[in-house]
């Protein structure tokens, strides 16, 4: 799926993203600096009814939000792997544990900069890429990665 959007209709893009990815426990977000990954996560969380303030976890590596979904409260782990040097550092920081919790159905993980520790990703997950088309315009591409 591809979806072109601007800030004026980013909520529509976030809703389309959720419709496409809701059955995937892990959603990865790739794109260059300034592509709007955290902005999209913020709007996705708003779409899901999360009222917590959503901010970039660049320095904390992970922020946790709470989501009510189908009568169940789930943690949403918003991870930013930009500062990670390697997979071992990601494991030491607990990223693998969060991903396992999501795979077991007890959490949702949203990962910015997944390429920094891609070895930790196992299907199923949704790989989302944000391409900058212009100052205001972005294109969202979604690839659903199922079992090999």
From TrEMBL:
Matching InterPro entries: P-loop_NTPase, T6A_TsaE
Keywords tagged on the record: ATP-binding, Cytoplasm, Magnesium, Metal-binding, Nucleotide-binding, tRNA processing
Protein localization: Cytoplasm
Main location: cytoplasm
NCBIfam families assigned: T6A_YjeE
Family designation: Belongs to the TsaE family.
Protein name per UniProt: tRNA threonylcarbamoyladenosine biosynthesis protein TsaE
Organism encoding this protein: Nemorincola caseinilytica
Gene giving rise to this polypeptide: tsaE
């Amino acid at each position: 799926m591809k979806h072109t959007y601007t800030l004026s209709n980013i909520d529509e893009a976030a809703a389309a993203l959720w419709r496409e990815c809701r059955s995937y426990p892990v959603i990865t977000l790739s794109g260059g600096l300034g592509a709007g990954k955290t902005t999209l996560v913020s709007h996705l969380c708003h779409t899901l009814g999360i009222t917590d303030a959503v901010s970039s976890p660049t320095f904390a590596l992970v922020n946790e939000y709470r989501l009510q979904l189908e009568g169940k409260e789930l943690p949403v782990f918003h991870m930013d792997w930009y500062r990670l040097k390697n997979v071992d550092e990601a494991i030491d920081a607990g990223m693998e544990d969060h991903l396992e919790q999501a795979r077991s159905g007890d959490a949702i993980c949203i990962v910015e900069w997944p390429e920094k520790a891609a070895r930790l990703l196992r299907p199923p997950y949704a790989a989302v890429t944000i391409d900058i088309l212009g100052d205001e315009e972005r294109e969202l591409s979604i690839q659903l990665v199922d079992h090999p």
